[in-house]
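worker-03 picked up job from queue 'complexes'. Input manifest follows; two sequence lines, order preserved.
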Amino acid sequence: MTREFAFIEALRAIAVSPAARGLADDAAVLEIGGEKLVLTMDTLVEGIHFLPDDPPESIAWKLVAVNASDLAAKGAEPLGCLKSHALGEDEWDRAFLGGMEQACRHFGLPLLGGDTVRMPRGSARSFSLTAIGRGLEDVPVPTRSGAQAGDVVWCSGTLGDSGLGLALLSDQVRDVSPDHARLIDRYRRPMPEPALGAALAPLTSAMMDVSDGLLIDARRMAEASGVAIHFDASEVPLSDAYRAVAGEDVEQRIAAMTAGDDYVLLFTAPTVHSAYLRAAAKGLDTQIHAIGTVSEGSGIVLEWKGAPISLPDRLGYQH
Amino acid sequence: MTREFAFIEALRAIAVSPAARGLADDAAVLEIGGEKLVLTMDTLVEGIHFLPDDPPESIAWKLVAVNASDLAAKGAEPLGCLKSHALGEDEWDRAFLGGMEQACRHFGLPLLGGDTVRMPRGSARSFSLTAIGRGLEDVPVPTRSGAQAGDVVWCSGTLGDSGLGLALLSDQVRDVSPDHARLIDRYRRPMPEPALGAALAPLTSAMMDVSDGLLIDARRMAEASGVAIHFDASEVPLSDAYRAVAGEDVEQRIAAMTAGDDYVLLFTAPTVHSAYLRAAAKGLDTQIHAIGTVSEGSGIVLEWKGAPISLPDRLGYQH
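worker-03 finished. Artifact:
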């Protein structure tokens, strides 16, 4: 058990309001005035969640996007955000605000307030954002715990691009093919789709976003739901860019399933809803992929072209 | 113009939603489902907003309290909070959570969610809290901009205690009289009163909390309202502890008016409401103090026992 995990367990003991959902969901859900308010807060720390030389515009984009991803996973309409900003260099901060303005507009999350602070010299800076959304009318806000045996498991985009982008950045690969640029862009500018989440939510049995890696996040969903989730690694959707740079053998498929930072939707639904779900995605000019199945049991069951394979030691980013 | 101030000006240019109130109020006010949602977010940074050896319980208390103070200033009923936590030592973090739990219970702000992050070694840690409240029914959420010529200016507690407490801590005074302890406690464990804010709000013309110092915060209110605010420094309410430790001559009165970290309410109301306001406070076992008047004009006008005196160079904590 990591320190972060132990601390979150201690936090759970004090977060007893039902609105907190046991701190085991992507967001809190607070009922007020007949509305379901969806609340999430994520922090990005220099040297931990972004590289010090990442462009400030893209750090701001990511800060907004990772929160928009949580709203998307709850089918919530974005309403606005508050931001805490640690001041740095003037020019850097101005560029950050430029990226922030773009992202706020793109995701429909107008800046409503927050705080601006100075840091002691030499300290890593951190940026927190709280996003507020409104849950769908007449539809419960999706949980992670509703997956049922027999359901289909879906995801809303290709996996592994962002992780590969980060690997390319970290290894400082000099080659600058368009594929590299595309992958790095997926790392720096994730593109969650709140409108897609809202379109899918009414027919999903469980939904969350993939932020730490497909396998680790799916295991969380399986645990919360008391079911087993089955994947065939050969069926995981990969982008052309991913295939071109990394290939698509079993190792690369597993890498894509454990990399994290994807910010796509992971959801389950009864098979009878499959056609509707595909149509809903198509109506938004996007695609969803059936990537697994739910059965009775527990944990993640992994196959490669129909034959069982063992789970990797590392399922994703472990808190 | 400080860097922080310049940055906030740039932020204003992108915070165009009316709910943001031009980033010139204590909180954002978002209308949803017939309710007025009051949203605030404050960050405490190690070495800037708290001393590294402050007890972790009291840092957590302060984090919750400074946000509760913003809700109080808007007359809002506290609903819940989200917190971003930078991990430190296990024992320290546990003690912090203990203080957090106490404060969340005291202020009626159950923990609903947030984020927990690691920091690079040696970095100052920071803690952000977003508090959510509900504005009073059928009453507009108080602004800073409604003060009218002829109004009385009020505050909800004594001033300067916290600043003197910090001064005592910083000078490492060895004397540990009960008065010192009381002042240090005011610095470490501010006691805003959301219930008082809600009781007063319906009859105030403007309300905000005093966080940066009475004079600087009152000047903000005067500017927002397009009026002048008059104080007689000899009438500023001081605690017995303050008087015992620092005295009450003009320098000490001015110090109390510019120290900051008071987290009391500053508000204006027509004279006709004075008796009601006093009764409302008394009903909550607390006191409010008439400390000034509003006139046409601009800025702050200061007197000492009826004779004009000049404003100090420093009106409070300048962002």
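worker-03 released lock.
Chain B has a mean pLDDT of 94.
Chain B touches chain A through 68 residues (CB under 8 Å).
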